[in-house]
TrEMBL record:
Topological relation to the membrane, as annotated: Single-pass type II membrane protein
Active site: 38, 107
Species of provenance: Paenibacillus selenitireducens
UniProt-annotated location(s): Cell membrane; Membrane
One GO MF term attached to the UniProt entry: serine-type endopeptidase activity
Span of domain Peptidase S26: 8-185
This protein's name: Signal peptidase I
Enzyme nomenclature, EC number: 3.4.21.89
Gene Ontology CC annotation, any one: plasma membrane
Amino acid sequence: MKTLKKIISWVSTFGVGFVLALIIGIFVIQPYKVDGHSMDPTLNDQQRIYVSKLSHSFSYLPKYGDIVVIDSRVERSRDFKDDLVEHPLLQLIMKGSLYGDHTFYVKRVLGKPGDVLEFKEHRVYRNGVALEEPYIKEAMNYVSDSKWIVPEKHIFVMGDNRNNSRDSRDIGYIPLDHVMGIKIFPS
């Protein structure tokens, strides 16, 4: 009887800890690993970062220049089930994603709803003003005659390594519910 009480105590303690870890990881803070060189020199390949999930939980806009983790599958909608099965603890238990191969990208916010972005003279212009970007790796090779107008409830993101980044120029505008969080540390 005493052994059974100890087992029940341990199982309930583990259960409460597991549920708390899920809640914290889904709604408050979550670790991610940078995969690739698109954020060089700001972040390095395989560097671990932690993001605040509050922007995702409460659907608020990140600020200009914030480094965010995005779900690159912008062609599909997201729901709570996605947040649950993508949690690191469940991924560890399930040994991979239920959705197959997809990628979370780490990028920098350059445009918010209503902004007009242009790419000329190897620079980014937001609403007609060239951005000062001391964090980029090198001058951008990309130029375009098109103007990008960021729609409501979306953002426009780019990597700091502009010549080696798959970002909004390729995948399009990022719906706010696809912004998984804002990098908080390391800074």
